[in-house]
C-alpha cells in the first residue's frame, strides 16, 4: 500500500513514524519548547536525525480545553517552519483545520494535510471550504480524524456507548465524501482520534479493536503519544498517582507498538528514536 502525497509516494509496507513539531506555547506535552521558528526548525532536523519518516507541523493546540488560534497567528507560526521543513528531504504534514492555512501550506509545498475536523470546518463568513482546498490539489495526502464535539467540550461530554462502530462509520463517510469530490483513495489516511472526546476505556477499545477500523479499506494513523489515557499506567495508579505528559514515554512506545502490530500504517509520536527502537524489535520477529 502507498500513501500518495504532494511530492512523495510513501511506502506503507512497514509502519512509518511521524514526528510531532508543535509550534505552540500551550500544547499539552511540549508547549513552548519549540515555539520559536528557530527552535522548531532545529527540532525538525533532530527528528529526521532520529529517523522520522514524516514531519507533522502544527500551530494550534488541540488539547482538551484549548482556545482557538486566529488564522493570522497560525500562519505566522507555521509558514516559516514549513518553508524550511520542505527542504529537508522527507514528507511534511501540516496539522490544521483552517482552509486558508491549508491553502497557504500547500502553496509552500506541504505534502499532507492532517485535519482533526476531517475537513468539516469552514471559517465564519468565508466561502472557501477545507474539502474544496484538498480536492483542488492534484496530489496532496490527507489524514481525516474523528473528533467528538470540539476541543473546548470534547472531554466534558465524551461519547456514549460502543465507539468503534461510530468512529468507523464517521470516517468511512468522510472518506467517501472526499472521494466523491475527486480525491483519489490512495491519498486518504484515517485517524480514530485517540483522546478526542473518548473515555479512557473507549480509547483502549479503539486500540484493541483497531482491526475493525482497517475494514474500511484505508490505512490508519495512530496517535497515542503521551495521551492522558496513558497516565493510568502509573506504577501506583491505585494511590492516585498520575504520570505527567513527560513521564509517559514507556506507555507511549508500548501503545505505538501495539497499534503497529494491529496494522497501523503511521505512528504519530513525540519520541521518534525510542519508537523506532521498539519497532525494530517487532520487525525482527517477522
Assembly context of the chains: single chain
Q: How many separate domains?
A: 1
Instruction: State which percent range the strand residues make up.
Output: 5-15%
Average pLDDT rating: 93
CATH homologous superfamily assignment: Dihydropteroate synthase-like
Tell me, what's the shape?
Answer: globular
Count of helical regions? 9
Largest pleated sheet: 8 strands, parallel
CATH-assigned fold name:
TIM Barrel
Strand order of the largest sheet: 8-7-6-5-4-3-10-9
Number of strands: 10
Rg estimate, integer Å? 18 Å
Structural overview:
- The protein is an alpha/beta fold.
- The chain has a single domain (3-7, 15-281), classed as TIM Barrel (Alpha-Beta Barrel).
- The chain is 36% helix and 14% strand.
- It has helices at residues 37-50, 71-85, 99-107, 130-136, 163-180, 200-208, 210-214, 249-261, 272-284; strands at 2-4, 9-11, 16-22, 54-58, 92-95, 112-115, 141-145, 188-191, 221-222, 266-269.
- The strands form two sheets. The chain has an eight-stranded parallel sheet.
- Strand 7 (141-145), helix 5 and strand 8 (188-191) form a beta-alpha-beta unit.
- The chain is globular.
- The two termini are 18 Å apart.
- 48% of the residues are buried.
- The model has no long low-confidence stretch (mean pLDDT 93).
Amino acid at each position: 500500500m502507498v500513501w500518495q502525497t504532494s511530492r512523495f509516494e510513501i511506502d506503507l509496507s512497514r509502519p512509518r513514524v511521524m514526528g510531532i513539531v508543535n509550534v505552540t506555547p500551550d500544547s499539552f506535552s511540549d508547549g513552548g519548547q519549540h515555539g520559536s521558528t528557530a527552535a522548531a526548525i532545529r527540532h525538525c532536523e533532530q527528528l529526521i536525525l532520529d529517523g522520522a519518516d514524516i514531519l507533522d507541523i502544527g500551530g494550534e493546540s488541540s488539547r482538551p480545553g484549548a482556545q482557538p488560534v486566529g488564522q493570522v497567528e497560525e500562519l505566522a507560526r507555521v509558514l516559516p517552519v514549513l518553508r524550511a521543513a520542505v527542504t529537508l528531504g522527507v514528507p511534511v504534514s501540516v496539522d490544521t483545520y483552517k482552509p486558508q492555512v491549508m491553502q497557504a501550506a500547500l502553496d509552500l509545498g506541504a505534502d499532507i494535510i492532517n485535519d482533526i475536523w476531517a475537513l468539516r470546518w469552514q471559517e465564519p463568513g468565508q466561502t472557501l471550504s477545507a474539502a474544496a482546498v484538498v480536492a483542488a490539489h492534484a496530489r496532496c495526502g490527507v489524514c481525516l480524524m474523528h473528533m467528538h464535539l470540539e476541543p473546548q467540550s470534547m472531554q466534558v461530554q465524551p461519547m456514549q456507548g460502543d465507539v468503534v462502530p461510530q468512529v468507523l462509520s464517521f470516517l468511512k463517510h468522510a472518506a467517501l465524501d472526499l472521494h466523491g469530490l475527486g480525491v483519489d483513495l490512495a491519498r486518504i489516511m484515517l485517524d480514530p482520534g485517540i483522546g478526542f472526546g473518548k473515555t479512557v476505556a473507549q480509547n483502549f477499545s479503539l486500540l484493541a479493536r483497531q482491526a475493525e477500523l482497517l475494514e474500511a479499506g484505508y490505512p490508519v494513523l495512530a496517535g497515542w503519544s503521551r495521551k492522558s489515557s496513558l497516565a493510568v499506567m502509573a506504577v501506583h495508579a491505585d494511590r492516585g498517582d498520575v504520570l505527567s505528559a513527560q513521564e509517559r514515554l514507556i506507555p507511549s512506545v508500548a501503545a505505538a507498538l501495539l497499534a503497529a502490530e494491529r496494522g497501523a500504517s503511521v505512528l504519530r509520536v513525540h519520541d521518534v528514536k525510542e519508537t523506532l527502537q521498539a519497532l525494530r524489535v517487532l520487525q525482527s520477529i517477522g
